Automatic annotation (TrEMBL):
It comes from the Eukaryota. Coiled coil: none annotated. Residues 1-24 are annotated as: Disordered. This is Uncharacterized protein. Residues 15-24 have a biased composition (Low complexity).
Length: 240
């Protein structure tokens, strides 16, 4: 199956979420204005979440958007015809390294492209070897605009990367539109009980995969610093 707005196999029949609305300058004959292509690991993975979040923002602006897994796109020789048939006006590719399927396809070279960098692009892949560094820069050159989610990602970009096409757009997060939609205190108490955490203990949430590349242990250093700074200070005395 496709999942919600995320095709998992071949070209789909356009559905309502990709064809609703409209905005000035959008071709009314087009089926899809924007295709967001992304590497798929599982439904809750970061790249999937990012693709869906960008899609929601663009749909709210009146554009018709579909999110496509890289491994679900048509074969290389058929993508140009596929894009023309859908009326695609813009391609958004998530992750420079994992997006090679699209970024290196010369048949799509005339299509405007926004490249959304992944953290591993700039923190790992570009430094892995001369070949991966060359491929990264080639894909950046191919893009019309390159998006980085943080200032640390900007700082990690190779010196040869053309900064004039890079834009800093911080990551967003979806929150319940109404306070009543949020989980109540009972949910947190149940969570603590399940993990045998004292009910009065503070809980910190790190939203990240538990992998070395995520550098999750940096929190340990932060907590050590907090303990040194506030040793002997009660919770109600901590600065807010």
């Amino acid at each position: 199956g496709r999942g919600v707005g995320v095709p998992t196999s071949g070209p789909p029949t356009p559905h309502s979420s990709s064809t609703h609305g409209g905005s000035p300058g959008v071709d009314a004959r087009a089926v899809v204005d924007v295709v967001i292509a992304f590497p798929f690991a599982h439904a809750a993975a970061g790249n999937t979440t990012t693709a869906q979040r960008i899609g929601r923002v663009l749909r709210a602006a009146g554009l018709r958007v579909e999110c496509w897994r890289y491994d679900a796109l048509p074969p290389a020789g058929e993508r140009e015809v596929w894009a023309q048939a859908l009326g695609v006006r813009l391609l958004v590719a998530i992750h420079a390294t994992k997006g090679a399927t699209v970024l290196d396809d010369h048949n799509l070279a005339t299509l405007p492209l926004v490249l959304v960098l992944g953290g591993t692009d700039v923190n790992h892949d570009v430094h892995a070897s001369p070949a991966t560094a060359e491929a990264f820069l080639r894909r950046v050159q191919r893009a019309s605009v390159v998006v980085a989610f943080s200032s640390s990602m900007l700082a990690a970009l190779p010196a040869a990367c053309p900064r004039d096409k890079v834009r800093l757009i911080p990551q967003g997060v979806g929150v319940p539109p109404e306070l009543g939609d949020a989980a109540g205190p009972g949910a947190m108490l149940a969570f603590k009980a399940a993990l045998e955490i004292p009910s009065a203990a503070p809980v910190f949430l790190l939203v990240a995969g538990l992998r070395p590349v995520k550098d999750v242990l940096f929190l340990a250093e932060a907590f050590q610093s907090l303990r040194r700074r506030f040793d002997g200070v009660s919770r109600d005395q901590l600065p807010v």
